[in-house]
Amino acid sequence: MPILLRYFLRLAPTNPVAVRLVQNASRRTKHLYLRMAYLGVLVAVLLWALITSTESDQMSFRQLAAAGASSFQIIAYMQIALICVLAPVFMAGAIAQEADPQTWDILLTTPLGAAEIVLGNLLGRLFFIFALLLASLPLFAVTQYFGGVPGSTILSSYLIAACAATVVGAAAVALSVSRVVGKRAVFTFYVSVISFIAITWAADTITGTPGKVTQFTCLNPFLSLQALLNPTGYATYPQGTYSGLQAWMLEAPVSAFYLLSAISSVLLIGASIVTVRYGGIAGLGGITGRTGSGGVPWYRKLLGFGAANAQTRAARAVWTNPISWREAASRNATFSRTAARWGFVLVGCGFAIGLLIFFITGRVNAATYRTLLSFTVAGELAVITLVAVNMSATSVSREREDGTLDLLLTTPITPAQYLTGKMRGMVYYLLPMLAVPMFTLALGAGYAFLGELGALGPVNPAEVTYTVAARTGGWNAAAVAARTIEVPLVLGESMLVAPLVCVPFIALCVMIGMSFSLRSKGTLGAVVSTIGVLAVIAGFVGVCAWNAGSQLPVLGSALAALSPASTVFASLFPELAMTKTVEESGLFSARTGLFIGAAVSAFLHLAVVYGLRSAMTRNFDMTVRRLAGTK
Question: Are 194 and 390 in contact (CB under 8 A)?
Answer without folding.
Answer: no
